[in-house]
Structures are given as structure tokens and as C-alpha cells.
Amino acid sequence: MVQAKNHSISRRLTWMNMLVSAAALIMACTAFVAYDKVTFRETMLRNLSTQAQIIGSNSVSALVFNDPQSAENTLAALKASPGILSAVIYTPDSRPFASYLRDSGGQIPTLPSISPGQTEIHLFNNKEMVLVRSIAFQGKPTGIVYIRSDVEELNQRLRRYAGIAAIVLSVSLIAALLVSSIFRRAVAEPIIHLADTARIVSRDKNYSLRATLGRSRGELTILINAFNEMLMQIQQSEGALRKAHDELELRVQERTAELETAKSELEVYSHSILRAKEEVERASKFKDQFLSTMSHELRTPLNAVLGFSDLLADERYGSLNDRQKRYVSNIHTGGQHLLKLISDILDLSKIEAGRMDLAIQEVPLESAFADVVSTLKPLAEKKSQVLAQNCESHLIVRADSTRLKQMLMNLAGNAIKFTPEGGRVELTAHEANGQVRVEVRDNGPGIPPEEQDHIFQAFYRLRQSGTAIEGTGLGLAITQRLAELHGGTLGLDSQPGQGSCFHFSLPVGASLRQSQSTEARVKPVIGEAPKILVIEDNRDAALLIQANLASAGYESVVCDCPQDAVKIVTEMQPDVITLDLLMKPSSGWEVLLQLKRDPRTACTPIIVISILDQPAIGATLGADEYLVKPVEKASLLGAVRRCLGVKQGESSPRPILVVEDDTSTCEIISELLTAQGYAVTTAEDGEQARAQMKARLPELVILDLMLPKVSGFELLAEWRSKPRTADLPVFVLTSKDLTAEEEQYLRKHAESLFHKQQSWQQGLSQQLQRVLKVAPAVKS
């Protein structure tokens, strides 16, 4: 039975029928025998009780008149019952009065106790049945009858039943075996035949075989028919597959022949492609050489045009009449337009040539928006337009800062150009799915659908009412390619009469939470002015740089012999060097390398000013700043100030420590202070503030009160208790609702108290100038 799972289905069915039949008969016989045993034992007990009652009734007079002989004669009648082993009549005090023992050598048994109120008890002990019954006369106990009987008759009866059950079980199993053989022929054999057919088909892959129905009916007929139908479908599919295989082989042979022919044609064509590639490379090389030459030849005189027109407009060099001012303005406007045209053409050429390198960094969008809006606002105001920005302060993107502003300038400039007077142009940004979507919207006339497919093409200019709008037609083409270089695409949503929305997406940048030191403040020039060495072999360009430097109070010297630059720098020891790259006989790259390798000049800041737009290479070789000609005065002076700040970093004033856990508020404070020229460090919680205070004593602290880990009150009390920080200026800037006691404490221990719920920026700036007593460096 343990291995029944390995037997055939017919044998399993036979065993199942026999087991079911045997189990049913055994349970029935067991139930019948158990029932008969219980009923027979109850019958025996009733018989003993009846005999005890008769003996008790017949022995009352003997007990009353103390006649044991008469009682024994009554008990002697029990000889007629072969199952009675002994019987005893006891007096009420449990003394034997008369007895009957089937075995003459037996002993009178001990009388079991009867509880008061009980008339009769019975016991089963050692395969014997004992019955004890009290004898009463006129309601008073007169004696006790004890009868003990065996159960041999019951045992014989059970043995007879067991024999009968065995005979019935045997007959039933034989009948079940006969029924199983009939069932096997009707059910099991067709299934076995079906299994054999399936095994042969699986082994020989002969799908033409069919299972026979035989005399089976019902579900077996359905099963066999379904099996035969499956074999027929498989046979048909195999035939179709074999036919398809043969056709495929034929097609492969034909296609192989075609490929061999195409291969020979391709070899011929590849040779022609190689020749064409070489010609394209030569043309591209000539194009690059032409662009490089034209860039130098155009930007060099353009640099002088823009620079000197700026100087002519400066009142310090003499006043101009209205006509002269208008002429100078026209010269400057034309120069800027020409500069933009040249820059656009060069940018587009660099992008198409794959030479546009992006300096990806974390860029705060709010700052980029502010720069663009500040630059284009005068243009919008000329047309009475509203130029607005809508950007959360915490939005930071990973992008090239310069190229991002270029994209925004192109899109916003186009929006201003095509939007009528009194319109609105808005720069917006929002974060979604790990990207920041930047949009430039306007409420202008919109762009017709037929024009939308062409406006991103280079040199294509949108026409309105048949009149061409001025421009190069390169702005959108460059912006689209810059967006693609950043990993996004430039999209357009526009309907005629409903305005336009240009949009692109940039990756979200990491939050600029870490403490960071801003540029050191540059003290106003007192006494001797910083010395600037201008290394430039073009006389007009050198004079323009000198004029811009002189207007800011710097002393400058020109070196027009690049081969002597290292010697002059060693003797002069300037504070900052400006360096052109395209010079003869020594190039600016050689001079830059020499200056950075010489220990005497390696620490001197160098500002590269060149028409070559290769800041990455300049930074690699050690340039501190990189400006592309033509250079605006503000850009030049800003670079000089930054270089002077780096050089004076060791002696610069101590920074202002901003202790603020809210990132947005911290950035606002930092921007406000750095815009005024103060150096700033930040701390997110009290522990960082303690660490920075221990490392370096700040010049002043701007402190929030509700901080993690350590509160502002604890920090203030701690600083005031130590001699090193007892006199340290502390400004408290908080949004906490102060009690009278807390406000009184802060008024006593802090220099100033500002509430975030109120306008605090102007007051903070004024108090800083009052407390520090030194004005920050003013930006030109």
C-alpha cells in the first residue's frame, strides 16, 4: 500500500473499492456488536435484579424468625442458573445469614457498602457482575441479598458475532473484487489505453495515431475524442510548420544571394562615402579656420567700438550735446547688435561641430531669473510691458549658468519683441517628477500653426502681416540645441490670439544647504591703489582696458611684449594680471603656463581676456577668471574685484555667521548680505554654530531662536557667559511669538531684534553698517 502511487489506475481502483467496502462493513459490525453487548449486559443486570427481589421476598420470614436453613433453601434454587457463582443473605448489620456457593471450596465474599437511601447497586469486577439489594419488611431494613454472576454467556455471544462478521466481510470483499473487475473494464482500461497511446505519441512523435473509443460512454468518450482532436491539430500544425520551414530555407538561400550582391555594392558605396567624408572633414576644417579668423578679425575692432563708445558716454571724460549722445548711442546699439550676431553664429557653429562644452553646476533659478529680468527690463519698459518672474527661492537646477541665462535671454527677448505694447511677459518655473519645468509666457498675438514647424530652424524669421521682424533668426535654433545639450527639449504651446509659451525642463539640483563662504569683501581702496598689469599686444584693446580700470580707481600698466611678461611681473609684483591669448611672438597660453609654473608669480591672480571662448582650458591651465571679448566694463571690474578678494583673503574681515535652520530664509539672508559685499558663513543648527564659533570667531551673528538640537536662547546665554564671545554682536531674527520676559532678555543681551513677520531687510542692512562701522564694497 505504501507504493500504491506506482500502481496502475486499475489496481488503484480495485484497492479503493475493496478498502471502502471493508471499512464500511467493519464500522457496521463494530457498531452492531457494541450495541448488542450493551443491551445484553443490561438484560443480565435486570435478570439478576429480578432474582434478588424474589430471594429477598422469600427470605423475609426466615430473617424475621432467624431461620437460616429456610433462607439457604431459598438460595439453593439458584442452582438452576449456571451463571450464578455465589449468593449470600446478610443481616442488617452485614453478618452472613445464609449463602450459596457454586464452588464448594469458595469463600463468602465481602459485602460492598450500600449508601443510605439506596436500594440496589451493581458492580462489574474481574469479568464478573455483582448485584447487592437491600431487603425491607414493613419499611424497615431486614437484610441484604448479594448475588455474583459471571459473563461467559456474553463473551460467547460476542465470539459468535465476530465469526459472523468475518464471514460477511469476506463475502463482501469478494463481491467488491468482482465489481471492481467489471468497473475496470468499463473505466480503467480505456484510460490505460489512452495513456499508452499518449506515451507512444510522445516517444515516437507519431501524431497519426488515434485512441479507440471501445464501449466507453459519457466523460470518457469526451476525453478520448478531445485527445484525438488534439492529435489531429498537432499533426496539421506540424505539417504546416514543416512546409514553412522548407519555404524559409528557400527564402534564406535567395536572401543570401541578394546579400552577397548587396555586399559588393556596399563595398563600392563605402569607398565613395570615405572619399566624401574626407572632403567634408576638409570643408569642416576650412570652415573652422574661417570662423576662427573672422571671429578674431571682427571681435578685435568691435571690442574697441563698444569700449570707446562707453567711454564717450561717460560724463567724466567730457559732456556731449544731444546729437552726439544720440550718435554714440547708435554706435553702441549697432555694435551690440553686431556682437550678438557674431556670437550667435559662432555658438551655432560650435554646437553643430560638437565643440560646445557645458560647465554643469548647481544654479539657483531665482537668481538666474533675476539677472535676466534686470537686463531686459529697460527693453520691456520701452514698450510699456510688464516683465515678471515667478519662481520659488528653493528651486535649484543642474545646468551651465551662462548658457541657461542665454536661453532665458533669447526666449524672453523674443517674447518682448513680438508682444505688443502694454503686454505681459513672465518667466515661471515649477518642479514635477524630478525635473524643473522652465516657461517663458507672453500674451502676444501667438504663433500660427503653419509657422510653428519652422521657427526652430536656423535663420528663419517669423513674419507678421507680410513684414519681417528684425533679428538673425538664430536665437530659437541656438536655444533648442542648448536645451538638448542639457538633456531636454524646447517645446512650444501657442494659439493665434492667445499668446505663446516656450518651455524646457532641467534636472533638479542638490539643495545648497551646506555652510559656504561667499566671496570675501574687498575693502575700499585707501592710499595706494591696486596695481593691474595688462598683457595685451593690441594697442586699442589695451587702452580700453586701462580706461575701464582707471575709472574704478585702479593703477594699470600695459605690457605689449608677451615674451617679457614673466620678467615684468617678477619686478612689478602686480595685484592682478589681465592676459590676452592671441599674441605674437609668444601666445597667451605660453605666458599663462610660465606664470603659473614660476614660484614667484604662481600666486598672482590672472584674468584671461580673449576672443577665444575656451574657459574650460583656461581654468585647467590656472586662469582665475575668463572673459570673452568684447568685455563689458562691469564684467571686467567684477572679475578684478573677485581676484583682489581672493588675494586679500587672509587679511579680509571676519565673516558674518547666519544661524538659521530654514533653507529659504537662510538663502535670502545670505543673498542680501553678499549683494552688499559681506562675507557669509551659515549654520543649520546650534551644534554647527558652536563648531564654527570654536573654529573662528565671526564678526557678527544673525541668530534664529527656534533651532534643532540647541535653541537660540541657549546659544545666546552661552556666548554671553564666555569672555571670548561676551562682546560679540548678535542680531536676533525670529518668527517666534515672544513673551514680555523673553523680549526683555533679548533687548538686554542682543544688539538688535527683528521679526520675520515684518519687513526686516532694510533695517537689518542699516544696523549692520551701524554696528560694523565699515561699509561693504560697492559693486559697479
Structure, briefly:
This protein is of the alpha/beta class and 780 residues long. The chain is built from 20 helices and 24 strands.
Verbal overview:
The protein is an alpha/beta fold. 51% of the residues lie in helices and 17% in strands. The protein is built from 20 helices and 24 strands. Strand 1 (84-90) and strand 2 (96-101) form a beta hairpin. The protein starts with 8 loop residues before the first helix and ends in an 8-residue tail after the last helix. 26% of the residues are buried.
- Estimated share of beta-strand residues: 15-25%
Shape: elongated
Residues in helix, %: 40-55%
Distance between the termini: 104 Å
Number of helices: 20
For the sheet with most strands, the description reads:
5 strands, antiparallel
- The strand count comes to 24
Keywords:
alpha/beta, 5-stranded mixed beta sheet, 20 helices, 51% helix, disordered N terminus, disordered C terminus
Secondary-structure map with pairings?
Blueprint: H1 9-58, H2 60-64, H3 68-76, E1 84-90, E2 96-101, E3 120-125, E4 128-137, E5 140-150, H4 152-204, H5 219-313, H6 322-352, E6 360-364, H7 365-382, E7 386-390, E8 396-400, H8 401-418, E9 424-432, E10 435-442, H9 449-452, E11 463-464, E12 467-468, H10 475-485, E13 491-494, E14 500-507, E15 531-535, H11 539-551, E16 555-559, H12 565-572, E17 576-579, H13 588-597, E18 606-610, H14 615-621, E19 625-628, H15 633-647, E20 656-659, H16 663-675, E21 680-683, H17 686-695, E22 700-703, H18 712-720, E23 730-734, H19 740-749, E24 752-755, H20 761-772
Parallel strand pairs: 7-9, 15-16, 15-17, 17-18, 18-19, 20-21, 20-22, 22-23, 23-24
Antiparallel strand pairs: 1-2, 1-5, 3-4, 4-5, 6-8, 9-10, 10-14, 11-12, 13-14
Helix pairs in contact: 1-4, 5-6, 5-11, 6-10, 7-8, 8-10
